[in-house]
Design goal:
The protein has 296 residues and is an alpha/beta fold. The protein has a single domain, classed as 3-Layer(aba) Sandwich (Rossmann fold). The protein is 31% helix and 10% strand. It contains 9 helices and 8 strands. The protein has helices spanning 15-25, 45-59, 73-77, 105-122, 163-167, 171-180, 199-208, 210-222, 228-232; strands at 7-10, 34-38, 65-68, 90-92, 98-100, 136-139, 158-161, 240-242. The strands form 2 sheets. The chain has a 5-stranded parallel beta sheet. Strands 5-4-8 form a 3-stranded antiparallel beta sheet, with no helix packed on it. 41% of the residues are buried.
Length: 296
């Protein structure tokens, strides 16, 4: 028989997962054993401030907010001694070829540490085998307008649930609910240097978080010729990496926010990143095959 006393929330601290946590804290849906936030170490300051606010709200309902991490994604990318979990960086090949590197960051820095925590809480940390029938429910903040991203868990010890789908709520319903409960300023959850930022988001970061913007500019310059580990090993990138799709240095980008595409964009949650993995092109010498893992 399936165990049902383990109920967790995948907390990305964006609109949908914040809504699910608030619903549970107010007793409008069943509560959670814990809400698990996977910290990449490089979220914008407003996200960390919002997370602290969520912790206070959750505490009133005895829901612990647990922060787990697989490391600091920015620091790791610039560490010559650390394996580089590829980010979806825009690439420009030596002959002007335009492409993107493969996205491994979500799996490495968000999904993996959550699974580690769930196994630990079940009492069977890796490499122990979780007994058949012992599972944890994992609530994921996917709303009706994003139903195509709702998937079953890829491991037997977790069962994905979707409280917002059960309610029939769309993202606009979540925004309304947050506004009604004093959380209208809930930010989008995505790393400071996420290449999937729209021009409106880059402009907002530059305007509202100068330190974050300068950090992104510095990172963009640091990864121009590939990962630190690859360069230290004498395997420089065949081409260049960029954070912005214009494929010019971030501080030289002409930002063109557009209301039709730069509106309320979903964040990058562990299981809810709205972007698909692009093919691998213009990569290093071992990354010529589309879809192949980029190894430096």
């Amino acid at each position: 028989m399936r165990a049902t006393n383990h109920r967790y929330l995948s907390l990305g601290a964006g609109v949908q997962s914040s809504t699910v946590l608030l619903l549970a804290a107010r007793g409008e849906i069943p509560t959670f054993t814990a809400a698990i936030f996977a910290d990449t170490g490089w979220e914008p300051a407003p996200v960390y401030a919002h997370l602290r606010r969520l912790q206070q709200i959750a505490a009133t309902a005895a829901i612990p907010v647990v922060r787990v991490t697989a490391g600091d994604i920015r620091r790791d990318a610039l560490d010559p001694g650390h394996r580089f979990a590829s980010m979806p960086l825009f690439t420009l090949g030596p002959h002007g070829e335009r492409g993107m590197s493969r996205r491994q960051c979500t799996g490495e820095y968000k999904i993996k540490p959550i699974k580690v925590e769930v196994r630990r809480r079940l009492g069977y940390p890796h490499p122990a085998r979780v007994p058949a029938g012992l599972t944890a429910d994992m609530a994921i903040g996917i709303s009706l307008d994003e139903i195509g991203r709702a998937r079953d868990a890829d491991v037997a010890y977790m069962r994905n649930t979707f409280p917002l789908l059960d309610l029939g709520w769309r993202r606009e319903d979540c925004l309304r609910y947050l506004t009604d409960n004093g959380l209208a300023d809930t930010p989008r959850s995505a790393c400071v240097g996420c290449p999937f930022r729209t021009d409106a988001e880059w402009a907002r970061l530059r305007r509202d978080d100068p330190a974050g913007w300068n950090d992104a500019v510095a990172f963009d310059a640091a990864i121009r010729h590939g990962s630190a580990r690859a360069n230290a090993a004498g395997q420089p990138l065949r081409g260049q990496f960029f954070l912005h799709r214009q494929r010019v240095p971030l501080d030289q980008v002409t930002l063109r926010p557009r209301a039709d595409v730069d509106g309320d964009v979903p964040g990058c949650g562990p299981w809810t990143c709205p972007h698909t993995d692009p093919p691998v092109t213009a990569g290093d010498d071992t990354a010529a095959t589309p879809g192949r893992e980029v190894r430096h």
